[in-house]
Design a protein that fits this description.
about 90 residues; mainly alpha; about 65% helix; about 0% strand
Length: about 90
């Protein structure tokens, strides 16, 4: 699908400290992992997105429709979480 910019958005998301904090807290809440805030690096976040979207490279997010859909779900969940943090 031409016109998708998911790969670029994923890169920006991985560099966002709030997204990495979301991954730290999600790991604790969902898996009871011993993951203090500040654990996930941008590299970890990138790996997490690739694994969640089942792609080898973020560039596939722009061409693989299923992966793009999964990425949008991740963005939506993160945005809802971030909105709750501010209230």
């Amino acid at each position: 699908m031409a016109g998708n910019h998911h790969a670029r958005a994923a890169g920006i998301l991985c560099r966002d400290p709030a997204f990495r904090l979301y991954l730290d807290r999600r790991a604790r809440a969902k898996f009871g992992a011993d993951v203090p805030d500040g654990t996930h690096t941008d590299q970890d976040a990138s790996e997490w997105i690739r694994k969640a979207c089942q792609v080898r490279s973020r560039s596939e997010l722009d061409t693989n429709q299923q992966a793009g859909t999964t990425f949008r779900l991740i963005q939506n969940r993160f945005n809802r979480w971030r909105a709750r943090q501010k209230s």
